[in-house]
Amino acid sequence: MADDASPPTRRPAASVEVARPPKPEEPKRKPGATPFLLDFYPLEDERSTRVSRFFDSLREGRFTTTRCPKDGLLWPPRAVCPECHTEALEWTELPGRGHLYAFSAVLAGAPLGMEADLPFVVGLVDLEGTTLRLFGRIVGRPWNECRIGAPVRVEPYTIDDGRVFFRFRVDGP
Amino acid sequence: MTSLRRVALVGGGATRFGVRAATWAELVQEAGAALYRALPELAEVEVDSLFVGAAEPERFAFQSHVAPLAAEQLGIRPRRILQRTELACASGQSAIRSAYAAIASGLSDIAVAVGVEKMNLPSMAEANTAMACVMDRAWDGVHGATAPPFFAMVAQRHMLEHGTTEEQLAAVSEKNHRFANTNPTAQFYEKRFDREKLLRLPLVAPPLRLGDCSSMTDGAAAVVLVAEEHARRFTRTPVWVRGTGQYSDFHNLAHAGSLTEWRGLTIAAQEAFRGAHIGPKDLDLAELHDCFTISEIVEYEALGLCAPGEGGRYAAEGRSDLGGEVVVNPRGGLLGCGHPLGATGIAQALEVYQQFAGLVPSARQVPSPTWALVHNLSGSANVHSVMLYGGAA
Ligand SMILES: [Zn+2]
User: Fold this and answer.
1) Size of interface A-B (CB pairs under 8 A)
2) pLDDT at A18 over 60
3) Is A135 within 8 Å of chain B by CB?
4) What local confidence, expressed as pLDDT, does residue B3 receive?
5) What pTM did the predictor assign?
6) Which domains does chain B possess?
């Protein structure tokens, strides 16, 4: 693509300052770990995603997401607002509590990595004081003892390789 | 839209659906055999375009670049358009819509739309993994969001908001399984289910039982769409594409809104009906996406076949059965035929063609149909795709 007539833009090699980005490190994988392309958990480090702060905060026990100054709360955390397309998003803390809007359970037919969890409960949670209704794993109560409206709280947890994620724990009747 | 050419559906063929001792490529070959048996004229013309509906061959068959692979299985060498269409559970209908668009615009004259999925693997956990990738994998799939628990929540809310019952769900399942008993290509052709038996089947994702859920199915189907001037070469009973519509407004489950009002289907159907100047009550038959019994119930309502909340009763009163107001899923539906994702939309269109041509057994023949609608949802009902077909005119 270079135009032969234009002056060279590269400086002599000797004067090039070495300012390469750090060499990407492979996230630590245990032998026999699920291959990346069969692993549901997102890659959360800053080399892999622009919302690594979500996971950093979660590790510190804070449940956060991105917020557009104009369009409000965005879920999941994003790099760009889908309405006004600004990249100037802010991080904001979400309430760690909510109520079950709907739920069911997976009694058979789990994906890889979730077979040992069977049977497990999933549900939609109305986050207190927000308009967000998030899907998630529900723990702490078997499905036949859950009820719509039950209070739940966000619970961070770590997986084998040190990555962090969240689920909801039933917190009352 | 007035400058678009008229497009005819002129026939097709399908494999047996089920747990099949055949690979992805072999299923395409079988669909080709069925297609050329049904339409021997096809061997004498040039198929200029091929559209391949395939949802997850990368997962289920560890294969990408499937359009030329499918073309080779069929012995078709397209000179105009060769492409794969992927829209999860609606991948097959996407192939048909693309073929329609290509022919209507003048880019193609004779196109084949083939759909295929090979879903039964030695490891069903891997197959379930593929299904959970249909959702927003990193934020929803990761929690275990496959289709059954999502549609179970739809059923839970519909029961809460409208008093829908397990018996009403079973009425949908019984009807579609009974129709499947007339369809030798159906996964459950030989299996009988009455309502009492359905209500005793094990829970999969409460309140949904095994009989409320469509299956993991291997299968393929192919249909031919042609420009008007070629239609009579293939059939005396061409079926015309009279409208099409599609709507999607979310993907992550956080944006699903009401679980029980599928506004996207209402919008897609209105778009499909618009050009034909008809409405839902004019339909003679509808192939609706009954991936779960509750889906068919919500679809009656979103389409306007009945009032919101009345879907359960609509099924239980037989209004969607043969002899009712609109015959829904005479092919046997996804519940009775199984649901090979890419093949389903093609097999539904094939049923419409065969119904109009009077080629189906009398036990499921809709008397002299004029209008038919085909609907597919995909994912968490976050996309709705609709085709409207009309007979002689
Ligand atoms: Zn914005």
Assistant:
1) 107
2) no
3) yes
4) 86
5) 0.94
6) 7-122+217-234 (3.40.47.10), 134-213+241-390 (3.40.47.10)
